[in-house]
Amino acid sequence: MDDKQIKSKVISSLFWKFMERLGTQGIQFVVQIVLARLILPEEYGTIALITIFISFANVFVQYGFNTALIQKQDANETDFSSVFFLSSVVAGLCYAILFISAPLIADFFENPMLIPLLRVLSTTLFLGGLNSIQNAVVARNLEFKKLFYSSLGAVVGSGTIGIVMAYNGFGAWALVAQQLTNQLMVAGILWFTVKWRPGFLFSLESLKGLFSFGWKLLVSALINMLYNNVQSLFIAKIYNPAMLGYFNRGQQFPSLIVSNINGSIQSVMFPALALKQDNRQRVKEMVRRAIVTSAFFIFPMMVGLAVIAEPLVTILLTDKWLPCVPFLQISCAAFALLPIHTANLQAINALGRSDIFLKLEIIKNVVSLTILGVSLAYGIYAIAAGMFFSSVASSFINAYPNKKLLDYSYVQQLKDVMPSLLLSLAMGGIIYCFLWLNMSPLITLTLQVGVGICIYFGIAKLLKFECLTYLMVTAKEMLDNRRKRE
Description:
Layout (H helix, E strand, L loop, with lengths): L2 H36 L2 H22 L2 H7 L5 H32 L5 H8 L2 H17 L4 H23 L4 H22 L10 H35 L2 H35 L4 H28 L1 H9 L7 H11 L2 H13 L3 H22 L4 H20 L2 H4 L4 H23 L8 H22 L3 H20 L1
Helix pairs in contact: 1-7, 1-10, 2-4, 2-5, 2-6, 2-9, 2-10, 3-6, 3-9, 4-5, 4-6, 4-9, 6-8, 7-8, 9-10, 9-15, 10-11, 10-13, 10-14, 11-13, 11-14, 11-18, 12-19, 13-16, 14-16, 15-16, 18-19
Family: Belongs to the polysaccharide synthase family.
Subcellular location: Cell membrane
Pfam family, one: Polysacc_synt_3
């Protein structure tokens, strides 16, 4: 495909990926709000703890080979089927380990409910292996419209089941049923919409070729997963499930926003970059566009969310969840830097330099674990604040190799995102003043959101921000192309 075809395919894929994120995460957001009002913080904390162990096992099942299938330009049916059968075997081994070790985990955290919950929820490992292959097929072909239908259908069905069970007093089991049903429905819908089927094909040579690229990503994911969850493990052990519930809930709000925007851009960006990996200048342009576009949307949302946190939590989750507000605000600062993290890492992977990716993960996690070790002595809020300092350090570490690979330094990247950051902080300072008026939470929240949007986009248009201009031109091109086809 030439550059024009790739741009058209990327924009179309980005639209459907964003629609998938917006639709599914929007519905999921509503579902989570209802569940949070029906389920106690300690029950949420228990499921959050179980999810850590399942996520760690999922790294072995899904990571590395999945990305290698997308990155390999001449991947064939033997590659896909071999990875599928390997993932199924690994899923079985991981499930057996979790099943056997469940009593030990329950004893360590002094929570006997962990045993049945962990054993049941761990069955998602088998579905995750299948879903990862189907997602790789979709990503390679940039057919994200299919993910839109599967994700939307799954979140509606699983959300309904979760809410009904929570309403009838099933507590943590409602969350288990929701997650299981979601994975099952995603796998079922993709089975009918994605043409790929595993064949009776298996090749060790094929796996060795993929492993040469994927093993570094696998180790990187393990290291990253360990750091991302070690905080929760300490909180669960030192404090209690309720505090873990507040910590986890505080992260969910900014995570939801970032995964909608940044996740959509990056999931489309990697296969697109892989197609142009031989043209470094073109890769640089695409990386820069991804960073600038992500930052333009994510910075104001993170700043705004941090400011409106208290009235938002009061209205949506009720006062019982107010202890999560400080964690939410700190998480906003940490998640705001994600565009720089992911765009740089996607470029490195797309260029086939998973060796650099692994080195970066090791360096980042040494730094982050050092920060965590220091913060443990100062309490739970210091642990949360450590996430922000780790994010700042990681953003520099992730960008460093691309100074040589793409001639795109960290300083250049900061200059590119600085207009969006400064405007976001100014907007946040203005809408913060509404908290001094002592109005009802609903009125305060409505004014803050409305005024914040008007200020941010109004000034961006007045100052002719590059990103906003680009988006408006691109949207006009899409409308013109659609009119021509009609």
